[in-house]
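S.,

Sequence below, as promised.
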Amino acid sequence: MDFTLNEEQKILQRNVRDFSEKEIRPIAGRIDVDEEFPWDSFHKMADLGLMGVTIDPEYGGTGGSYIDLAIVVEELARVCASTSLIYVANISLTANCIETYGTSHQKSQFLTPLVRGQKLGAFALSEANAGSDVASLRTSAIKHGGDYFINGSKTFITNGDLADVIIVFATVDRKLGAKGISAFFVEKNSEGFSGRNERGKMGMRGSTTAELFFDDCKIPSINQLGEEGKGMNIALATITSGRIAIAAQAVGIAHAALATSLKYAQQRQAFDQPISEFQGIQWMMADMATQINAARLLTYQSADKKERGEPFERESAMAKLFASEVAGYVTSKAIQ
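The prediction came back faster than expected:
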């Protein structure tokens, strides 16, 4: 399978790269040090149409492919990992989930504003004792009349405390286990809802990561996303697609580390020559570049399978696993 980019994808790549270098790179260091959410960049990305790159034009998107999404994420991550994470949470986890499972009314109310940059989205699944073991989540949603009342908490939620619309997963019947989980839209101003930014992270500090709290949080029944009891299916399917974007993010981070290493090696002198002339350094960089290309191809393969409507669960998991390990390997070598 040839994953050579077509002309439209090359233009997309070039445009995002130019935007990232001009608008994001100058502030990337500052927002990481200051733990500052880059609202200006967020709105400018929306103005470029990036927030709807995979979304149907009916809702303001450009109707692109998941390879297009991978291109955008990689280019953003090359310059600022925080910005790429904000972007992934907004489009890959939130907007794409709404497009897939939302009603026409929900798409008009929530999806279109996300695509236009008028609202920020978040995906609230993880809890203190329910990370990988999603079925054991404790947040509950009890129906009274025409409303649901949500009680519980979520943790490690990207964009969570700043988001205008949050997809929250809660159990309507704990005895049913995974089959008792449903998904709901919770808006920022909902009664009984609050969020707290978890400051002091080791990295990606420009992206807010939050704890969310629900104390008899009242939401109308029309804010249920998908069928009752189908929340687990929605969560897992969304995460499976989201792994493609996370893999692309890791590729971008690794590529940035390689590019920085190469620039340094060409400038650093030892024994009257740049250290890039030493074979040991060249071998190290060749290994880094090879690993990055392999990770990118795995990412594109999983995106291509999704676009074709073929099973891609294994491929997206492999891409995320391998690309994240490559990012760790390459950044470690870059320090050396």
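The chain has a mean pLDDT of 95.

Coffee later?
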